[in-house]
Amino acid sequence: MDIKNRINELIDYINKASYEYYVLDNPTITDQEYDDYYNELLSLEEKYPELKREDSPTNRVGGEVLDKFEKVTHVHPMLSFDDIFNEEEIILFDERVRKTIKNPCYTLEPKMDGLSGSLIYENGVLVKAATRGDGITGEDITKNIKTIKTVPLRLTQNIDIEVRGEIYMSKLSFEKANIEKRKNNENEFANPRNAAAGSIRQLDSKITAKRDLDFIAYFIPNPEDYGLKTQFESLEYLRKLGFVTNYKLNKKVDNVSEIIEYIDDLSKIRKDLPYNIDGVVLKVNNLDDEKKLGFTSRVPRWGIAYKFPAEEVLTTLKDVKFTVGRTGKITPNAIFSPVHVDGSLVSKATLHNYDYCKDKDIRIGDVVSIRKAGDVIPEVVEVKLDRRKEDSIPLKMITNCPFCNTLLIKKDANHFCPNDKCPARDIESLIHFTQRDAMYIEGFGDRIIEDFYNMNYIRNVDDFYNLHKYKDELKTLEGFGEKSIENLLNSIENSKNNSLERLLFALGIRYVGKKTAKILSKYYKTMDNLIKADYEELKSIDEIGETIAKSVVDYFNDEKNLKLIDRLKKCNVNMRYLGKEVNTNNDLVNSKTFVITGTLSKPRDEIKEVLESLGANVTSSVTKKTDYVIVGENPGSKYDKAISLNIKILNEEDYNKLINKS
Ligand code: IVH
């Protein structure tokens, strides 16, 4: 047999064997046979690299190292569902659905605890994969996704299709990855979700390959194009195409009591599953019904995510330590022996404020229950008073700041250090500046920042950008070497190129979180524009309310902050929004202000995105400055206001015409 045929045959054998093993749960060859085929293929491909196919299983080991991840714009926005937490909310959801759909049928699926991914196949071959990102644009992770053994490189049919599913790390691989981390003296992953997210975002796909991730498929964004009539058929079709689905656990039901029964059953077996799940996803099964229900401005109305209650774990309170936040707020923190909570190892939890401790009569030595609050920071929920020992020690509130010794003041339930110059505040702000969602400067643990602060190297955030001047000195500091300082300075240098929203978030403007920073950056495009923004205009932006608008105006009215921005500019820190390129050719849309109201055939966010990509601003309230109001079905008071202000009204057809006039 000629070489080419043999290579083709081996690839087909191995891919078929994987399909039978992972998808059908029905292995047909032994591990030894698999290894023999694989090794034969590997050596043939080494000798004849020109014959290597795109869908060869040997591609799963990873390849060259990337400089960065390219951005990918999703063809269909990647939305997620609203979360609900109890039976009552399930009943409400069902009632809402029943207002539009007579006898709804639902699919119930385990809610996988990983991160969602979008996979694009052309002619049956995997050509692109992307993370969700902000739902509109994600990152290109094609190289990394190919290393996942449960991602088919070729489908059983030569079709073009986009498939969504969850990228996750099994409990077993998570244990293994952490053993490896411990061996290398590295920080362990907090939980399998973080481990999966960290592993799929490796520039070196060989590292991803070692982490042994998995993929479960659960969604096709345009099922009607494949003749599918229900979500359940989509799931079956995905399995036929070669994807692993949760076929043993996915279920069809048609009333609330069956939903609740399913949730109960699943919570019982949850611990025994090989992967973490954090709830149940409910989807209206019939795709025509889905269409009828449509979307709100943010989320589908045809589905919802029920989240299991957070796990509560008991531990003994050893000590309480007070920390000072960026605003000077004092937080008591519970210190205890490490315990696993929802898959993460934790040894600290917030006690919120002293009133909270007093209300619950929390004492050192008590048995307390810990739970993850809002998914990240754990909190102490309850004291087990029946298990209190005689020698438990009541908590005493501190009177002075643990950092600068200033007398604390009390505002409502919280204590504050009123000293603007309190080093703890500065240090917290510096730490915040370097965080992953802010300027993402790697290599600075909290300790290093505290040391650099105390040694006077970094007092304000712009000092990061002058740190290179002390390179030789820094290299001689204990715990640092040529390489680690080099890495640190490189990471600082790279952060200068961040898009505006990161800088805005990093500056720690009150109430300007990650999401708000993005909204402001997209709207104003440059720091200078934002500095000039007035309160009224800020308030008219979708999702910006009075509190944020006031806080932004106050921040930029403060001379001290303007000087800081000037210093950052002098250090060449980027002050522009680097998001999607805006096409300004369409004069009818560019620089115009739009308001959208009523139900349209597409999600509002999608229309907003299109308008913004053509240079328009989309705001939430109709004012004299509004140029157009796009009106869908059942418009509200915005429509009346537009009429009264004589503002041009567009229906969906007019809108489509307008955006196509370039
Ligand atoms: S369907 C429009 N199905 O949970 C939403 N999502 O809010 C389409 N997830 O971000 C997603 N298991 O990452 C879907 N069986 C499942 C899922 C699932 C986990 C995640 C997904 C999404 C979020 C849902």
Overall number of structural domains:
5
Q: What is the straight-line distance between the termini? A: 58 Å
Overall helicity: 25-40%
CATH superfamily of the largest domain: DNA ligase/mRNA capping enzyme
Question: Mind telling me the C-alpha Rg?
Answer: 28 Å
Name the overall outline: globular
Structure description:
This protein is α+β, with helices and mostly antiparallel strands. The chain has five domains: 3-59, Orthogonal Bundle (Helix Hairpins), CATH 1.10.287; 71-307, DNA ligase/mRNA capping enzyme (D-amino Acid Aminotransferase, Chain A, domain 1, 2-Layer Sandwich); 313-416, OB fold (Dihydrolipoamide Acetyltransferase, E2P); 423-570, DNA polymerase, domain 1, CATH 1.10.150; 593-661, 3-Layer(aba) Sandwich (Rossmann fold). The strands form seven sheets. The protein has a five-stranded mixed sheet. Strands 14-13-12-16-17 form a five-stranded antiparallel sheet. Helix 22 (604-613) links the parallel strand 21 (593-597) and strand 22. The radius of gyration is 28 Å and the shape is globular. The chain starts with a helix and ends with a helix. The mean pLDDT is 91. Residues 79-81, 109, 111-112, 116, 166, 218-219, 281, 300, 305 line the site of 2-(butylsulfanyl)adenosine.
Concise structural overview:
With 662 residues, this protein is of the alpha+beta class. The longest helix has 21 residues, at 3-23.
Please outline the helices and strands.
Elements: H1 3-23, H2 31-47, E1 71-73, E2 83-84, H3 87-100, E3 106-112, E4 115-122, E5 125-131, E6 137-139, H4 142-145, E7 161-169, H5 171-183, H6 192-200, H7 205-211, E8 213-219, H8 231-241, E9 251-253, H9 256-269, E10 277-284, H10 287-293, E11 303-307, E12 312-324, E13 330-341, E14 344-350, H11 354-360, E15 363-364, E16 367-372, E17 378-383, E18 393-394, E19 409-411, E20 414-416, H12 423-434, H13 446-454, H14 471-475, H15 482-495, H16 500-506, H17 514-524, H18 527-532, H19 535-540, H20 546-557, H21 559-570, E21 593-597, H22 604-613, E22 617-618, E23 628-631, H23 637-644, E24 648-650, H24 652-660
Parallel strand pairs: 2-11, 21-22, 21-23, 23-24
Antiparallel strand pairs: 1-6, 3-9, 3-10, 4-5, 4-7, 7-8, 10-11, 12-13, 12-16, 13-14, 15-18, 16-17, 19-20
Helix pairs in contact: 1-2, 12-13, 16-17
This protein binds 2-(butylsulfanyl)adenosine.
